[in-house]
Amino acid sequence: MKYRIALIPGDGIGPDVVEQGVIALRAVAERFSRELSFAELPMGGCAIDECGEPLPASTLAACRESDAVLLGAVGGPKWDHLGGKLRPEAGLLGLRAGLGVYANLRPARVFPELAAACPLRPDIIDGGLDILILRELTGGIYFGERGRSPDGESAWDTERYSRAEICHLLERGFEAARGRSGRLCVVDKANVLESSRLWRETAKAMARDWPSVELSFMYVDNCAMQLVANPRQFDVIATSNMFGDILSDEAAMITGSIGMLASASLGDSGPGLYEPIHGSAPDLAGQDRANPLATILSAAMLLRYSLGFEEGARAIEAAVSGALAAGLRCADIARRGDAAGGERIVGTREMGQAVAELIRRG
Ligand code: NAD
């Protein structure tokens, strides 16, 4: 079977890192004799320049027809003067909505080789760290009713969730926990918010169908503290759109660099969307300086969740670990002020090639 992968390199370092993601996917295809085809599509600032809009209808249509979408990043100073719907980032929101991807999965993992890049005390992450944050992506306060009073002196945004939306997201949470260490923590503010109480009620009712998963609850303010005090207590965290936005960035920083963090956004059917969590880093664009590992790890998630190809995903993850174990570092993950330790600083392409070579070797 031939799988079709839509590529959206985007702006800034997007094309630099997506190129390396594709090289990793081609190496997997070669090693396991799979057929993958790639089609490159415009979105973001480059699409504004080419087609006058951030998300051309032809791009969305081609994404819908593909098996999965691999995206780099969009945006940059060139388009910062544009308003609302014309901005590159509007393309990203349109693509997420257009593909109906409501569950955002962000793994936060500290690779043992990068423990020194973690800002927490070594004893706190002793034994490694591997958390999966599952964030609801298409509902809640970012999409609720908002407004201003006529005199402009007060404003409101509304957090609203239906039981069906919560159920939808939590299904993914229970499923993910079952495939990992079996612990699901639902994070909310149920001591204050009615919507959070509905999250708890729904989770408790669903838990009966998932006897192998240990369900717990935590208030979001406590979770923010626990993520830095004792992050190893978590396996899968499931939460609403805004809480997930904030907590996943906090968890990301624990791992040391934004250049290492992958993400997957999934709906019920249709292609998933895979992207590094970083932006277009215009300061590094086209200079062979961006860390491609977040995108390469996003490609691993693409194989796992959209193509059901776990062996391929593991091959990529093992190769990334192998490259790090061999001492290869992009500048963002190099030990600062410490030239010892057998580390060698490499550029985007050399890191990508090293990972691809390790994938091929197996
Ligand atoms: P950013 O993530 O692009 O950069 C933040 C910092 O991290 C910079 O110092 C950058 O050099 C560094 N960095 C980011 N990715 C890196 C990588 N792979 N390797 C090494 N270093 C890396 O965030 P920003 O500076 O706030 O935004 C820049 C542009 O990106 C803006 O136009 C913003 O709107 C856009 N943006 C896009 C997305 C997206 O497409 N999903 C997400 C966030 C920001």
Verbal overview:
The protein contains eleven helices and 14 strands. With 362 residues, it is an alpha/beta fold. The chain folds into two domains: 1-105 and 263-362, Isopropylmalate Dehydrogenase, CATH 3.40.718; 119-254, 3-Layer(aba) Sandwich (Isopropylmalate Dehydrogenase). The chain has a ten-stranded mixed beta sheet, sandwiched between helices. β8, α6 and β9 (214-219) form a beta-alpha-beta unit. α5 crosses α6 (194-207), α7 runs parallel beside α8 (241-254) and α10 packs across α11. The longest helix has 19 residues, at 14-32. It is globular and about 50 Å long. The two termini are 22 Å apart. Nicotinamide-adenine-dinucleotide (NAD) is lined by residues 13, 17, 73-76, 89, 92, 258-259, 275, 278-284, 290-291, 294, 332.
Per CATH, the superfamily of the largest domain is Isopropylmalate Dehydrogenase
Question: Any idea of the CATH topology of the largest domain?
Answer: Isopropylmalate Dehydrogenase
Average pLDDT over all residues: 94
| Main β sheet profile | 10 strands, mixed
> Quick one: how many beta strands?
14
Strand content: 15-25%
Molecules bound to protein:
nicotinamide-adenine-dinucleotide
N to C succession of SSEs: EHEHHEHEEEEHEHEHEHEEHHEEH
Molecular shape:
globular
Please list the strands of the largest sheet in the order they lie side by side: 2-1-3-12-11-4-5-10-8-9
Put simply, the count of helices is 11
Q: CATH class of the largest domain, please?
A: Alpha Beta
Radius of gyration: 20 Å
Going by CATH, the architecture of the largest domain would be 3-Layer(aba) Sandwich
Structural class by sheet pairing and helices:
alpha/beta
Helix content: 25-40%
N-C termini distance: 22 Å
Indicate how many domains the architecture comprises: 2
